[in-house]
Each structure stands twice: as structure tokens, then as C-alpha cells.
UniProtKB/TrEMBL annotation:
It comes from Parvularcula bermudensis (strain ATCC BAA-594 / HTCC2503 / KCTC 12087). Catalyzes the complex heterocyclic radical-mediated conversion of 6-carboxy-5,6,7,8-tetrahydropterin (CPH4) to 7-carboxy-7-deazaguanine (CDG), a step common to the biosynthetic pathways of all 7-deazapurine-containing compounds. It comes from the Bacteria. This is 7-carboxy-7-deazaguanine synthase. Homodimer. Mg(2+) binds at T56.
Amino acid sequence: MAGEPMSYAIKECYYTLQGEGAQAGRAAVFLRFAGCNLWSGREIDREEAICRFCDTDFVGTDGPGGGRFVAEELAAHVASFWPGGGSPYVVATGGEPLLQLDSPLIDALHDEGFEIGVETNGTIAAPAGLDWICVSPKSTAELVQTEGDELKLVFPQSDAPPDQFSGLAFDHFFLQPMDGPYQSIAIATTVDYCRANPLWRLSLQTHKLIGIP
Ligand SMILES: C[S@@+](CC[C@H](N)C(=O)[O-])C[C@H]1O[C@@H](n2cnc3c(N)ncnc32)[C@H](O)[C@@H]1O
Ligand SMILES: Nc1nc2[nH]cc(C(=O)O)c2c(=O)[nH]1
Ligand code: SF4
Ligand SMILES: [Mg+2]
């Protein structure tokens, strides 16, 4: 019996500007995968989760542009958001995209002409063929993906001091102030840290500042 082709659970898919890190300002299709290995996504589980500060709803497939797709279908869906021109760019995020993003989908997105960026928590090894890897380590979760293009640490996290990551093989090191009830303290702490440790640059979530998704 032939197996069913892999189907991908997508929370939402939309066209915006990358708001964070070294690619901030670049037009991109955001492909948000459903599900994460560090939190169920239910508020009732947040305080017991490994990752407790998540700013994202990644549960289900009911968002704008969401649904279940096979690889070629999903690549065509992503391509339908691109206006033409420039360098087509898709950012795979979530939830944790590396629970689902695999080589058939990478190949299908490349065949549609896209460069592929990924936003990952670093607990799962990245498949070959990704064009931009952003790793964002999470508190006590074991870091498996120890190389990539940018390391973007949400700051401060008591169990994840920046020093722990500064020797890893990344081209860019960012601290991103933790959004939430203590955001102003987090911003001040991040500015102080970057001033004292110039390896690290400030990453603001610019999409939130200007009210785009
Ligand atoms: C929602 S996560 C999805 C991708 C992946 N699971 C990860 O954690 O990297 C996307 C980015 O938002 C960051 N992020 C999540 N919650 C945040 C918060 N409260 N403040 C600042 N950045 C946050 C993550 O660290 C990650 O860099
Ligand atoms: N505009 C925009 N930029 C982003 N960069 C990383 C995001 C994410 O949630 O992964 C994100 C997001 O949610 N929106
Ligand atoms: S690992 Fe990423 S998606 Fe999962 S809960 Fe943390 S920030 Fe959210
Ligand atoms: Mg986001």
C-alpha cells in the first residue's frame, strides 16, 4: 500500500515584512506551522511549559491562509502571496517549524523560486537546504542546532545567559527584549547588556512597533 504524502499543518500564512533580526525590513511570506515541542499552546499549561513567554498562537489550522497541505500545494499557496519582483522570501516559523519542515517541502519552495528562512528554537537539527537559519534558544531546553546565520536570544531568561552562546558558529548575535508584563525592564536590561558586550546587537520586534503582523 502506498503511504499518504506528508501533510503539513499550517496555522496561518500571510505576506508582511520580517520584523526581527538581521533580515528586519525584508518582505517575506510568513508560513506559521501549527504545534510546538516546548509548549502545548494552551494557557493552562504555560506556567509548567519549558518555554513560558511565547507571544504566539500556533494552535490549530484555523488562521488566515491556514489549513492542511501537501508539499507542492503548500509551495504554490506560499507563492500566491508574493507580489512579483525582488527576491521571493518565505519565513518558516510557528510553533516549531522543524517539527514538520522537511526536504520535500524545501525542494518544492525552491522550485517556486523562494529563499527559505527559518525561525527555530534550536532543539531539532535543521534539514539541509535552508537559506537562512535563525536559532532562538529557550531556557533549559537542550540546544541541538549550534550553527546557523543568526542567534537571536530572547532576553533576559534566567537559565540562558548570553555567554553560553557567544562562542557558537553564527554570523550575527542578537538579544531581543522579552515582550510581556516586564517589557520595559527587559528593554533597559538588553540595552545595558549590548552596551557592555558589543558582540550582541539589539533586535526590536519592529512589526509590533508599527502594528503589522
Ligand atoms: C514564536 S517563535 C516561533 C519559532 C520557534 N519556535 C522559536 O521559538 O524560535 C518566533 C520568535 O519569536 C520569539 N519570541 C517568542 N515570544 C517572545 C516574546 N514574548 N518576546 C520576544 N520574542 C519572543 C522567539 O524567541 C522566536 O525568535
Ligand atoms: N513581521 C513579523 N516578523 C517576525 N519575525 C519573526 C516572527 C515570528 O513570529 O516568528 C515574526 C512575526 O510574527 N511577524
Ligand atoms: S519555542 Fe517558540 S513557538 Fe514554542 S513556545 Fe517557545 S517561542 Fe513559542
Ligand atoms: Mg511573531
